[in-house]
Amino acid sequence: MAGKSKSGGKSASSGSKSKSSGAKSGKTGAKPSKDDLLQYYRDMLQIRRFEEKAGQLYGMGLIGGFCHLYIGQEAVVIGMQSCLEDGDSVITTYRDHGHMLATGMDPKGVMAELTGRIDGYSKGKGGSMHMFSKDKGFYGGHGIVGANVPLGTGLAFAHKYREDGGVCLTYFGDGAANQGQVYEAFNMAALWDLPVVYVIENNKYGMGTSVARSSATTDLHKRGAAHGIDGQKIDGMNVLKVREAGIEAVAYAREKGPIILEMETYRYRGHSMSDPAKYRSKEEVSKMRDERDPIVQLRDIILKEKGIDEDGLKEIDKEVREIINAAAEFAQESPEPDPSELYTDILIEA
Amino acid sequence: MPIEVLMPALSPTMTEGNLAKWHKAEGDSVTSGDVLAEIETDKATMEVEAVDEGTMGKILVSEGTEAVAVNTPIALLLGEDEDKGALDGYEAKGVGGGSTDKDKAEPKDDKGDKEEKQAKDESTSEQKAPDGFAKPEAADPGPEPDYDGETHEITIREALRDAMAEEMRADDRVFLMGEEVAEYQGAYKVSQGLLDEFGPKRVIDTPITEHGFAGLGVGASMAGLRPIVEFMTWNFAMQAIDHIINSAAKTLYMAGGELGSPIVFRGPNGAASRVAAQHSQCYASWYAHCPGLKVVAPWSGMDAKGLLKAAIRDPNPIVVLEHEMLYGTKFEAPTDPDFVLPIGKAKIERKGSDVTITAFSRMVDVALAAAEELASDGIEAEVINLRTLRPLDTATIIDSVKKTNRIVTVEEGWPYAGIGSEIASVMMEAAFDWLDAPVTRVCGEDVPMPYAANLEALALPTPERVAKAVRSVSYAD
Ligand SMILES: Cc1ncc(C[n+]2csc(CCOP(=O)(O)OP(=O)(O)O)c2C)c(N)n1
Ligand SMILES: [Mg+2]
Q: Is residue B139 part of a domain?
């Protein structure tokens, strides 16, 4: 395959910036400005508050079924999203609320989907795990572990087929990395030089099984080696590091082909709402929270280096809280779908 | 006003739990994410985290209390600017409104309420939409347009190829992918010549990776392309069935209509010759079972061309079940590139007044042969080529049975939960009063396909078996 790097090292470092421009400040520029940092802070906080609220509504019986919270992993999705251009696409698993908010989907519509109401993104028919927005380039929201990896590779195929210059970010978990179809997708992506960044969100566990207990080799970023796909391990708790790696990887994918980023991250809550997380120690969780929390880390940088004081951030906290409260209210007031919705959206009228 | 902390439901099934331990005392400050208390459920002990910030004002349910119902206020939190005075005279309300499953499960004995609900239910069943099998009139896209244009005699293989070529010329979003479809010209030579005309960008040889390329195709369709995914045979699509059902068929519904999967999955289905069990199986009832899919099974040249073209143009995921044993058969097929067949419409291939025989794909040949044999005995069979298995054209079958009062279904697939079983149910529901004999199925035998020539022949429906079934329902044996 011409154009594909066979070197073991980082290959995304060439000055390739096909689509980067000043058009949208903060999207692709290498060094984030103060405003960018404040934006990342706000966006991560919005996910955190959204998820906490979702947990609360779940506790009140307003959200049912499976609900997988993203708390702790916010830096991954906010850092990566900051590297994208309009027209790029994103696809992920069932742990998807953060990804939806990051692509710019409305917290009201997302929350109303969680409560199963008509104003939810899927009219209440998809729930927590299944929402989509063509407008925002968000392609779900998939519940079968591993399945979104070929799907995302197909989105990348479509970018290439159309020659629209787009890239697909395909997110999946450490557990999903053991699905056979992931490697079928890797093979085709490499064979056809598809513009896809595989973002492995290694939060250390697939449900209750740690990476070490499920994977013969635990360096997940090396899993593309058999197909000539380079990978890198990134501190996924640090939004600036995620962004730095993301910019290179996205540019590489856009110009050359698939690449893997393994994000070392951590979920604070259980796998889903009913998981008491007995497979890990309290100390492990609190150590992560206390020492590596992505929001606290960025907050410290902003306070120490950017001349913003606590009050400045309080404003943001307040604004985010209001947005989330409004979303929660909206999600409770929106009516349940009309019974006739049971029979709609099964087929498109030809 | 103080913020109420409620007893949370920590699993989809929890209705009550024990308050095992408080981690915060009255007067403690609380920030989001702090552990407030430990709750014991039927399954485990879980921590309750704070969502709101403030100061623990008052604990309402003390440590050690058992069987606290979900949504009972367990504590009051004071907001940042509130002092203890806010607690005076405050009465906790618990959760208002909120429709939980529990609410729904509870029988309401208010009669007016019930009647209203019933009325509602009835009005919704009327809205029952397009492809509910039990609704005969639902699957009627109107009569098949009579084609009286030019035809030419070609093989099924060529008809399928021409269908794809015409649609690829008309729409550059359409592309073909699968194993050996390009340079090898198709494992069964169905894609002969397509690589030459459309090039490797649109006629794509995939690795042997059904699960992967089916998923890749569905992803591309979600982005608005119109993939045709060829399976070398449908047997191998079992590796891909997750993407066909979970990713393609269900997405439009799960997305509330925001996004669907306009894709065609096609390839040979059913019994091949002397290839044994793993390469010889009919998947008709597997796919016809699933809402969100359309399933067609062409027999003639007109079917092959008209149905495949319709499938490619259709905005939904479509399964096209071809038949290897028909690929080389010659039929008259329309030359007009605008010719398509309506999906959801059967065709009466032979008119008759004494018995209805339904068949699809290669079994139409078997049914027609049986009809010839029966005609010499004075029994006139009406042979219906189903063409589409989902949505099934139940109206055509029912109309026929109203005339003949008896029906025999024919398929290569296994009897258990097969297409014939479905048709039998539809007859019970919609044509019971017109039946003069039990609905009778002629199916592939309920065994994996054997290799030995004699056993293989015994495993499949034959004109003789069909004729025998017809005589039986005609009480003529
Ligand atoms: C094919 C399949 N098998 C099993 C499951 C059940 N399941 C849901 S999530 C999950 C764990 C996945 O872990 P990981 O990929 O690490 O993602 P995370 O939940 O940590 O984000 C399992 C086993 C499923 N949804 N799909
Ligand atoms: Mg994981």
A: no
